[in-house]
């Protein structure tokens, strides 16, 4: 037994689905563009990467005499600049890893808005691109340097933080030593003042006792 399909009756639902799908696609496209525009207008998580700018400036520096055959910046200088750039990236990566859990918890509790999380996600993507770029540049300068450059940068960064911490401890020690020297001087001054007051009081008491003895009439 065959059934005939009423195409005219199905035309309206199909048209509704087509219009609904088109509206959803338009809304999704507008929403993504708006989110991208808002994300572009958000303040960056980090400030300008000075070490990256220095390295890029050295890379594009031309020879002073304008001769293309004359080498520009020495490779050793470029290597040092790229290593400093990698150290800066390590420091920023540590900050991102430290802040990620805190930002996620604050976002779940509603303590911060979505704009902060968008800034954080953009910073993560920028760091991923930056790390890949540094590895590419390292391999271009020295073959197979890319896999080890960040290991060297991590050691340099750790040593720098250790020296800064030791300097802070030494500064605290000097401050505490200065405070104690000052406090000891105050204690000594207060102690000597108390001794002088006690000595003065004893002298006054002795003078009064002598005066009493002098004024007492003698018995015949």
From TrEMBL:
Keywords: Membrane, Transmembrane, Transmembrane helix. It comes from the Eukaryota. Residues 196-220 are annotated as: Disordered. The chain crosses the membrane at residues 12-31. One of its GO terms (cellular component) is Sec62/Sec63 complex. InterPro entries: Sec66. The keyword Transmembrane helix applies. GO terms for biological process: post-translational protein targeting to membrane, translocation. This is Putative Translocation protein (Sec66). The lineage of its organism: Eukaryota, Fungi, Dikarya, Ascomycota, Pezizomycotina.
